[in-house]
Each structure stands twice: as structure tokens, then as C-alpha cells.
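note to self: the first set is below, dont mix up w the second
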Amino acid sequence: MNAHYLLAMQASGGGMGLLAGALPFIFLFGILYFVMILPQQRRQKKWTAMLDALKTGDRVVTSGGLRGTIVALKDDSVHLRVPPDNLRIEVTKASVTQVTTADEEAKTKAS
């Protein structure tokens, strides 16, 4: 008798209870989207635009910490001239994390 009574109670108010139960999860997903997902998408677009704008003569920093000047571009790789011995190395474009300018280099050397 008790089980039938509980089933009848759940069946009669189940629609509103489901919405009230799902509301916190929807709210949590909205917060996660604006705090984590949206900023990551913006960073990804900015990084992709930076890779598309690479040109010969740009000074770059790779994810491994190598600093060099671009001497040649290929579809998915970059040839860098790395001081002090002017070594020429090939790295993937995806490993380029930053393009540095002369002004930025002067600031870091002055510090």
C-alpha cells in the first residue's frame, strides 16, 4: 500500500519536480560556459590568427622556449634561425606561442 501511494505522488508532480531538479545543472553549465569555455575559444581564435599572420623576419618564441627569427614558412612548419650560432631549425607552426617585437625585447633586456 505504501509503495502505490508513493508512485501516485511521484506521477502527479513529476513534471515540475524534473524542471526544479534540472535548473541548478542548467545554471551551473551556464556559469562554466562563460567562465571557462568562452575565454578558451577567444584565446584559440587569437592564436590561430597569430599563426596565420606569421611572415619571414618575425621573431618568435616556441612552446619549448626557443627564440628565433623566421627564415622560411611551409604549410605546417617554420624554419627558424636561432642565435648565437645562427642554427637553422624546423619546428611546427603549432609550437609557436608568441611573436615578439623589438620593443618587447628591449623591455626584457632592460629589466
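second set (the one i keep forgetting abt)
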Amino acid sequence: MENNSQDKKDTIKYLIDGIYTKKEAKQALEILRDKENDEIINEQMSKAWDKTQNLSESNTFEYKSDLDRAEKLLKSMNKPRRDRKLLKYCIIAASVAIIIGIGIIGSKYLGTISSSTLHYTQISTSYGETKEITLPDGTITVLNACSHLSFPEKFSDKERKVKLEGEAYFQVVKKESQPFVINTEKFEVKVLGTVFNIKAYSGDEIQSINVESGKVQVDMPDAMSRLSASEQIEINTKTDNYAKEKIDYRNVAVWRIGNLRFSKTPIEDVAKQLERVYNCIIIFEDGQTFNNLISGEHDNEGLKEVLESIRQTSGIKWKVDEKTNEIILYK
């Protein structure tokens, strides 16, 4: 009994603070609808309430749409008394409503507008190039090398939506009635006003969102998560696994000052990043397996210095093909 009770506590706490999948949200609903769990629910909701005390009443972006969807779902349940009580919990701690509203119903967008009515601007960067852009709302975006950003000449009244392929650092102007939405191939990020970095190169194994200040919401096909300052989530595009962890906010987007930083980064992703930064071609020796994870920081170093550092820490050697001028990695 004691273990079962702890499992229920962990489930509710995880769904409030972590990454929410549809399966887990359904499990949470079963727990919430069982009257035997009232004591556990009250305990966790009390803790969630404490977390909301510093939030302003005007911070409706994070909760209103989720509460609306949760209320509709609750009205469809078969236990009226339990529904009213659960809705009260949702109002006290909107985290549960987020699970119900997003995890179960999975609304993809906060608002829609016909793309035919908007005229889009596309900004791109080439190898070794970064570019700073001021968007129509005053948001500042810095594009990393080999990245593409698409945005309308004028944002709709409901939301500010852009599309990103590659990597970009955002300083979003706060507009509570007009959420800022970044759409990528694998996920969507929603914010009001915050500073963060998105790495979403389509060919990379690892994609990530790193928050410097403020909060962001990350919607993935079968999960969602909310990140605060000094937090990141990494998405493995091969396995579809997600990992959320604490980070040093000072390490967010160090590429803007010419630095490189790898943290257990697959060697193939490292090679692609070096190609983008140094405008080179890197290939791997045929017949060899490369599953190394690379970590290290490089402050405005040249390509040869970075390759030599990788050799010293991983044992992966490098050479230059004089005919093709390609860099070959080998063991």
C-alpha cells in the first residue's frame, strides 16, 4: 500500500513538473478521478498552489486555453461532483489542466489564420555566417550558420508565428495577448516574452531548447514540457527520447560570440556543426564505427585546434585529403 501511494504521488508530481505524454496524462486522469486518492491529490495541489503565488493574474497565456479545454473535458465525465472538484484543482494549480488540455486533447495551435492572407519574409544564413534580425514586433533574433527563418511582414492579432530550420537565439518582446510561436520540424515552442535558444537542424541527431530567462512551452508530437530559466530539453530525433535538465544560463548560445560548446554531443553532430561554422567538408573513414560522445568548450579557436582537442579527448584522429581538401576522421 505504501509503495502504491508513493507511486501515485510521483506520478502526479512528475506530471506537474516534468514532461507530459498522452499515456501518462491518461494515467493521471484515472488517479484524479478515484476518490480514494483525495488525500494525495490535496497534498500535491497544495504544493502546486505554493508555486503559483508569484504569478500575476494577467499571466493568462500559460493557463487560460488549458483551463478552457480541461473544463470541456470535465463536463463530459460521468461523475458530476468529482468533475467540479477536479475543476477546482485545475483552477488552483493550472498544471493539471495543462496535462488534460494539452496531453489529452493536444491542441496544436493557440490560434489560426489563413496563410494566404499573410506575406512572408525569409532570412537565411550561409556557412560561417550569423545574422541579427528585428522582427515586426520588435523581437530580436540571431540566426546561426546555415539557418532559415520565415515570418510574416505583419503578425496576426492572435499570435506571432515564425518557422525555423537551423539554430536561432530569440529575445522575445512580451505581449501577453499575442503569444510568440516558433514552429520547427520536430516541435513547437510557445512563449510570451523570454530569452532562449533553439537548435533544430533537420540533419542533427540531437535538437534542443535552452532557456536563458523567462519561460517557454515545448509541444512535441506525443509530449509537452515547460522550461524555466537555466533549463533545457534535448530531443533525440532517432529514438524520440526527451531529456530535461538544469544548465548554466551563461552557456546559452555561446556561438554568438564565436565559441563552441559540446556536452555529450554525438560525433556526427559535432562534424556537422564544424562544417557549418568553418565552411569545410568532414567525412568519416569507411568501415569504421563512430559512436563517440564529445564534450568540451572552445573559445574562438580555429578548426585545426578544435580537431586536435577532439583527438586528445576521444582518440578520433584527423587528416586532410590533399586532392579533395576534405577532412577525414578515423581511428
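remember for set 2: The helical segments are 2-17, 22-33, 38-52, 64-75, 80-92, 94-105, 267-278, 303-314.
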